[in-house]
Amino acid sequence: MKNKLIRVSLIGKTNVGKSTLINSLIGETISIVNRKINTTEEMIIGISNIEDTQIIFYDTPGSSFLNNQNIIKTKIKTNLWEAIYNSDCIFYLIDSLKYNFKNICEDLEKINELKKTIIIIFNKMDLINNRTILPYVNELNNLGFINSFFNISAKYKKGLDELFNFLKYRAVKNKWLYNNNEISNKDDVFISNECTRNAILKFLHKEVPYNLKVRNIVFKILKNRNLKIKQLIELKNLRYKPIILGKDGKTIRKIRMNSQNEIAKIMQSKVHLYLQVVKFNDK
Ligand SMILES: Nc1nc2c(ncn2[C@@H]2O[C@H](COP(=O)(O)OP(=O)(O)OP(=O)(O)O)[C@@H](O)[C@H]2O)c(=O)[nH]1
Ligand SMILES: [Mg+2]
For residue 174, how many other CB atoms are within 10 A of its CB? Predict the structure, then answer.
């Protein structure tokens, strides 16, 4: 019987490991992970079905968008709040190495206005002794509205069973929202575009990666089951083009190889990736 449902938002500052966690929970790469800040731009949904329960996870952009008064209404901010509104509970992730009570409190108080169940998750526990976080737990517990605390390592998949058990227990009678075979709202085209954006984030610094879009124009499964993919890197401003190409095309070649390898790993097939750098809206 498919009759229980729970929806969970993964919220937290940039780089705390939200996308790593959704990938580990779903068991596949559906959201890209990077050491740079503000990697995730769109809301990404991951679906996990366990017996009669469907668990829906929303991966969101970093929570700096929650409070930012300068951003009145952007797609990112709207996505973030939409995820929170639609959730039955919030997993608020903390990078255990970068605990900052005041910063975290700002987010938590804002989220708590919606009276959602808030669960604190200390991530990156592979890098720190368990005892270090005890005073943090105490401090946050004193806020009076935190439902529970978990310690995990999203990267090394530690502590995830406890999260699943908690969610299974809290799921309530409701119709499933997705079919049994769906694991994400994002398709292979989206993920392959994201691999290229991620490679650009890796090899280029400063504002360049945040001022472009990757758009797919060909996604074809060839007779030998290889994948042929063509993508446009669309720039808002063409002055970035030489930076992306690099000297003698060195940088774009590195981006192409890195993305091609990543897509091949995720799709488990050989990939031929072609990239072209164009001005936004150029055909
Ligand atoms: N050691 C360790 N590193 C982790 C863990 N979880 C995530 N990371 C690393 O932290 C960095 C950021 O991870 P992401 O998953 O991209 O973080 P995010 O919260 O989605 O970041 P934004 O999308 O920018 O908001 C990456 O380099 C990850 O490999 C963990 O459990 N342990
Ligand atoms: Mg992310």
Answer: 15
